[in-house]
Specification:
26% helix, three-stranded mixed beta sheet, alpha+beta, 124 residues
Amino acid sequence: MNLSLKEFRAYRGRDGKPAVRGIAVGYCVRGDAWDDPHDRQLGIGKHTHAHSHVSKDDGQYRGWICVREFENLGRKHRVSGTLMHELAHVITGHGHDDVWRRAMTRLGQVVGPAWQKRSRGAQA
């Protein structure tokens, strides 16, 4: 699925409401720096291109997607894989688990090697 930014913003969750509440470019909507200690606890590093606010603890920011640079939005009126990745988080409320991977597939996105399920190997 190759959405325009307008279609992306209008994408509805299972509850029928818009899935994405907003997109912050160049900063985190919470006002934190990209290298904030809270983000590091969540595994969001200073080299991360984007993150989404999906937990109940995110309160008023739930449903927001924050991207580091304008280029992370996409080009030629089509959203980037980064935004589609974050949309899958927003619509599922999940991390990189099977629920999130199924959402990525439904959105027509490839689950990259870094996010594919890893086997734990044979148990002894």
